[in-house]
Design brief:
Layout: H1 19-25, H2 32-40, H3 45-58, H4 62-105, H5 114-139, E1 145-148, H6 153-158, E2 162-168, H7 173-185, E3 193-198, H8 203-208, E4 216-221, E5 224-230, H9 243-251, H10 262-273
Length: 288
């Protein structure tokens, strides 16, 4: 049955059409366009229930909403933690700058400081003790370059912590060069004893230590020979080698502790300028 006219109390009749045509002609579900289309052509009750079930299926569940809420809360907490951390770092930096500024502007009276007086007194005591130690060592031959005889050799090298003995020949020019450097090094390193022994007058120890080339510098620790410098090969292979080379070579075995000073700085500059330049003739050494 179909009404002959449109009445406010009767909705427009749904057009009669085959199911297949209704399926193809049915507007899309959900959205404003579908609602408008449904207003003109309301779907049958079965299709309406299917659309409603479909929309309900697309809605998030309570657990999903709860999980999203927890994620949102966690994200907010992380943002808040980062913000607070940045603020804390900034505050710490500002506080450090302020403390540094106060320290820079603070007046310090060094002349009226008990700690400074104590430090000064301690330094004086240390200097006095060092001076006394040097005096005692000087009495034992430290701080100077001393020539010894063969019968003094064992007594000298076995009664001190460290000793350097230069075996020389009185006629060799290179031995004279070593004498010059040893004379300058000995006062600088009082902790070590610097000695020289004429190889011609000490045949027993020359043979015992197997010394075949002169000049030969033998290093001793507690009476035991631990290292030696033979000729000038390890000192640059030249007659005018720098004193610094010899000092640093002695430092390698801990015989001395290298000390730099203004004279050394000048020599280092000269050494850099002439680096790579070699001179002097070959040295064949002694027959002993």
């Amino acid at each position: 049955w179909q009404p002959t006219h449109q009445s406010p109390s009767f909705p427009r009749a749904y057009p009669l059409s085959p199911p297949s045509s209704r399926a193809t002609a049915r507007p899309a579900r959900c959205g404003r366009n579908s609602r408008d289309a449904s207003a003109e052509h309301p779907p049958p009750e079965g299709d309406f229930l299917a659309d409603w079930a479909h929309c309900l299926a697309q809605m998030p569940t309570f657990e999903q909403l709860k999980g999203e809420a927890q994620l949102g809360a966690l994200e907010g907490a992380l943002h808040a933690a980062v913000r607070d951390y940045k603020k804390e770092v900034t505050d710490n930096e500002e506080s450090a700058k302020q403390r540094q500024k106060e320290a820079n502007t603070k007046e310090v009276d060094l002349l009226d400081d008990e700690d400074l007086d104590e430090l000064h007194a301690q330094r004086i005591r240390e200097m006095k003790a060092e001076a006394m130690r040097r005096q005692e060592m000087a009495k034992k031959g430290h701080g100077q370059y001393v020539e010894i005889k063969e019968d003094q050799f064992l007594q000298e090298v076995t009664t001190c912590e460290k000793a350097v003995v230069h075996f020389f020949h009185s006629d060799f020019q290179r031995c004279a060069i070593v004498h010059k450097h040893m004379q300058a090094i000995a006062p600088k390193y009082a902790e070590c004893k610097f000695l020289k022994l004429n190889a011609q007058e000490a045949p027993f120890f020359v043979t015992k230590l197997q010394i075949q080339v002169l000049p030969c510098i033998v290093m001793f620790k507690k009476g035991i020979a631990c290292d030696r410098i033979v000729g000038f090969e390890e000192l640059g292979g030249v007659d005018d080698f720098s004193q610094i080379r010899l000092e640093k070579r002695l430092t390698e075995q801990g015989i001395i502790s290298y000390k730099n000073d203004d004279i050394d700085s000048d020599e280092e500059h000269e050494l850099r300028e002439r680096r790579g330049v070699k001179g002097g003739g070959p040295y064949e050494g002694s027959k002993h």
